[in-house]
Each structure stands twice: as structure tokens, then as C-alpha cells.
Amino acid sequence: MTYEKMSEFAKEAGFSAWAPLDVSTIQLKQEVRDMCAVNTCGMYGKRWSCPPGCGTLEECGEQLKGKTAGILVQTIGDIEDSFDFEAMMEIEQAHKEHFYAMQAAFADAGISVIALGAGCCTVCAKCTYPDEPCRFPAKRLSSMEAYGMVVNEVCKANGLAYNYGPEKMAYTSCFLL
Ligand code: SF4
Hints:
Elements: H1 3-13, E1 17-20, H2 30-38, H3 57-64, E2 70-78, H4 85-108, E3 114-117, E4 142-143, H5 151-157, E5 168-176
Parallel strand pairs: 3-4
Antiparallel strand pairs: 1-2, 2-5, 3-5
């Protein structure tokens, strides 16, 4: 699939910005996984989408092997200040909707992708982790960070802004083919 076609998908899904993702710029870092383990977000060890349930760094790297093309996508929205959590949650929700729309577009086109989003999987109100297998593996949403990526570094390496100023919030995801 061409980058132009992926761009069309991104536009139709509702994203605000996108850029080609050079797979060779992706580095999976143990330090990111270590930050997950600190559990600031409270999701470490709670969902199959997040460490350690999403697999070791090596296992995540294995999944990315053979991927030769990709696209970074962002949803950018307005916030009043860094405490405007309501607006941030609205932008995050919109980003998830855009993400699922783009994932569905790839599926409809018969294209197999690895889709890495922002935040944890919220498909089920209560995740089956660790007692039962994931209910919806095809819908499971792991974040770029869960796979060990430093998102701002990936954006920078691919010519996409990450920080749009104090009155903007951007959520970033990627699709790898
Ligand atoms: S799809 Fe459901 S069971 Fe699977 S990781 Fe997401 S919340 Fe957990």
C-alpha cells in the first residue's frame, strides 16, 4: 500500500496530522518499559495491552520484524492549560475513535497491520488479565510506549511535531505494514 493511500485513510479517520514512518527509526527501549513498571498510570499488570501482559521487549520486537512501511498519526486538540483534564480526555477519546476507524479501514482493505495507539486498551470494562486470554485480540490496543518506544523521539526522527504548545494536546499512534 502506498503512503498516499495510508494518508487518505488517516484523513478519512479524522486525524489532525500524519507523517510517513521510517521503520528503521524505531527503537524499543528497556528504559521505557522500566517507566511502565513504576506504574504511574496504574495500568501496569492490569491489562493484556500493557506490560508485562503485552509481552517482553524482545517479543514485541519480534512482532515488528518484517514491517517495512508505516504511518504516524495524531489527533491534536485545544486545552486551556496543563490542568484541563476534561479537554485532554475528550481529545484522547476522539483519538481512539480515529484509531479504530483507521484500523477498520486497513482491515476492510485486507491489509495486515500492527496498530499501536495511545493509552491502554479500554475495549472491555474489566480486562481478563491475567486469568483468561484476551477476549478480543484483534481489537486489543497496545500503546507505542508499551512496545518500548519513546514517542517524541519517533516523531522527531520522522519529521512530525510532538509538542504543539501550551494550549494544544496531541495524541500519537502508528500503523506498521
Ligand atoms: S480487549 Fe478486553 S481482554 Fe483484551 S486487552 Fe483489551 S480490555 Fe483486556
